[in-house]
Amino acid sequence: MIRLDSQGIILVSCGLFEKKLTRRVTEDVSREFHYPVNLKECSLDISEFYNPGRRQYDANALLKMISEKAPRDAVKILGMLRVDLYIPILTYIFGQAALNGYAGIASLYRLRNEHYGLEPNYELLIERFSKVIVHELGHTFGLIHCNNPICVMRSSTYVEDLDQKHKQFCHRCMAELDRIEQMAQ
Amino acid sequence: MANRVSILIVDDEESVRDSLYSWFIEDGYHVECAENAKQALSLLNEKEFDIVLADIKMPGMDGMEMHRRIKALARVPIVIIMTAFASVDTAVQALKDGAFDYVTKPFDPDDLSHLIRNAATQVALKAENENLKEKITSLVDVEDILGESDALKKVLKEVESVAQSNSSVIITGESGTGKELVARAIHSNSSRKYFPLISVHCGALTESLLESELFGHEKGAFTGATFNRKGRFEMADGGTIFLDEIGTISPKMQIELLRVLESKTFVRVGGNKEITSDFRVICATNRDLKSMVNSGTFREDLYYRLNVVNIRIPPLRERIDDVPLLVNHFIRKYCTSMSRDLISIEPAALKHLEEFEYPGNVRELENMVERAIVVGNGKVIRLKDLPMGKEVISSSIESLEDLEKKHIAKILEKYKWNISRAAKALNVDRATLYNKIKKFNLKQE
Predict the structure, then answer these.
(1) Phi and psi for A77 in degrees, rounded to 5?
(2) Chain B contact set for A54 (CB, 8 A)
(3) What Å distances lie between residue A78 and A157, B133, B367, CA to CA?
(4) Catalytic residue selected from A136, A160, A176, A181
(5) How far apart are CA B104 and CA A176, in angstroms?
(6) 3-class DSSP state for residue A183?
(7) Closest CA to B80 of B106, B55, B110, B53
(8) Is the pTM of this model over 0.95?
(9) B239: closest CA among B185, B203, B276, B278?
(10) Phi, psi of B351 (to 5 degrees)
């Protein structure tokens, strides 16, 4: 049952995304979390988060900015990006979120087949992006990594890992999500 | 496993600490952070961590120095050194100092996950190893040999003192007295306890089988030897070999055994390569080896080689005071294994058990208690549940005269003291019966 008591989950597109992609992602998020999903566009300049030394964007700083700009009546907020993300300790990341936090971010940059010298596959790209977004939002709801190889909460460090798992929660994570939600209410 | 592993992150950069914290917390680990070595050491003194992920370059005490101090703690965690300034020298030094691994920032996400997973596996293996060591230690302790009689206390004292040495031991005692249990107790209390205790029942094997069993064999050594096989001496390397029923081995095997005991080297059957094994020998027998030496059926040199220490286990009839303790132990053991409530034993049944002779020793008592639990009413062991309870057969030595007295009394009772009928039944004349009644002072009740 969809809950309508707030703005629900807000997906903020930082950059240009095709309608087909945003529609599919919105459907996937809505199905997994049972909240209304609002799609918003933002025209923020993210160049200040660019690290010329690493030629990547600072995910922690972006996450902080998204969190600060978000409306307070949203359940969660997630920033959709097209840039290469990093955190100080890692060479790259697909997405970032604070466990039990309010905000998350996810990037398309390393999800494209072309990045790995392969033929473009748009459908696969959408699937991968949905998985990263659902995974990061899962963290914001308090879910940790899951050992189930097909659960969306399975940790993924390569795109191949993303392709192995489904974009849904396993029964255990689903039950845990329900438990967390009930406690919050 | 993951949610039990605790990680301490030590780095002066807040962004690094926060990033690592978020990364590991999402994997379900317990994570804490320290911004310098001093704070980390203080945390490590307060609580235990499984893994420490420490930066090398920190103001004040650096990561390498902190690692050296961590090694002095009572419980040393796995230390992973990380730095943004990679150099082969520091990496080598960190590993020489005992660091689990060395990583350069920034890491590939997959490398970091693997590194921590490997360290967590190491933590789990270490914990498992400690648990197993504890289990081995408690497997057969001297306390497991039950009894409070002086005779048994003497045996236990001997076990404790002999366990620490490396000398050969002969355990003598009747069948069922617990010779193998004593051998296990010696092994479990010795410095060889983390190595195997290999038991060989010499009496159960023919000469050729025993040879192949003890020394192993090469493929094709004899018909049926389709593969190479390690012998028991080889398997016992570092540990103890227990040779039960040593008195039954053939003269040829006695020579072979003597040679192996003296050189600790042997050759597999059908092989030509000399194998060395470091083992301790414990033997057991219910025969009188000294008499066998005198009669020439057991080699004197082998006897003296084996008989460095001799432990004699008294038969149960010599420590009958231990029966109640043993009965309670077996009741607990079998009720637990049969998933039944603990039952008691009625005084009459216990008294009968205390009066029994036990030619089969503790093993016989154990079987009696097990049987009584199986056939009994599940609440209490009664006299009739014991094999000897139905018809009291005391195996205590009775004279012919005692038996004669009992039998005459029984016949007289049967014929209600009718002397003629009783004499007829006993196939004696009346005068003889009168004389016997007078002699045994039998009276009608």
Answers:
(1) -135, 140
(2) 106
(3) 20, 51, 72
(4) A136
(5) 36
(6) helix
(7) B53
(8) no
(9) B278
(10) -60, -45
- N residues, chain B: 445
How many whole angstroms separate alpha carbon B19 and alpha carbon A86?
A: 10
Rounded-to-10 torsion of CA A166, A168, A170, A172:
150
Q: How many other C-beta atoms can be found within 10 angstroms of the C-beta atom of residue A171?
A: 10
A chain contacts of residue B108, beta-carbon cutoff 8 Å: 90-91, 157
Per-residue pLDDT of chain B (445 residues; tens, 9 = 90+): 444 689 999 999 888 888 888 888 888 889 999 999 999 999 998 888 999 999 888 888 888 889 888 988 878 899 998 877 666 777 788 888 888 888 888 888 888 888 888 998 988 888 888 777 766 665 555 556 778 888 888 888 898 889 888 899 999 998 888 898 899 889 988 888 888 889 999 988 888 889 989 999 888 878 777 788 888 999 898 899 999 999 999 999 999 999 999 888 999 988 888 889 999 999 999 888 999 999 999 999 999 999 999 999 999 988 888 899 889 888 988 888 888 888 889 998 888 888 888 888 888 998 999 888 888 877 889 888 887 644 444 445 567 788 888 889 888 988 888 899 899 888 888 889 998 898 888 887 7
- Exposure letters B127-138 (e unless 16+ CB within 10 A, then b): eeeeeeeeeeee
Sorted by sequence, the CB contacts under 8 Å of residue B103 that are 6+ apart come out as: B80, B81, B82, B111, B112, B115
A159 touches chain B (CB under 8 A): no
Q: What is the spatial distance between Cα A61 and Cα B92, in angstroms, rounded to a whole number?
A: 35
CB A148 within 8 A of CB A169: no
How many residues in total does chain A contain?
185
User: Please, what's the b/e burial string for A96-112 (b: 16 or more CB within 10 A of its CB; e: otherwise)?
Assistant: bbbeebbbbbbbbbbbb
ipTM value for the complex? 0.73
Check the CA dihedral B257-B258-B263-B269 and report its sign: negative
Chain A nearest-CA residue for B114: A157
Q: What is the distance between the alpha carbons of residues B40 and B58, in angstroms, rounded to a whole number?
A: 12
CA B359 – CA B175 distance, rounded (Å): 8
Q: What does the block give as tokens for A30?
A: 């809505």
Spell out which residues of chain A touch residue B23, defining contact as CB-CB under 8 Å. 87, 89-90
- When scoring A86, A89, A144, A161 by the number of chain B Cβ atoms within 10 A, the one with the most, hence best to mutate, is A89
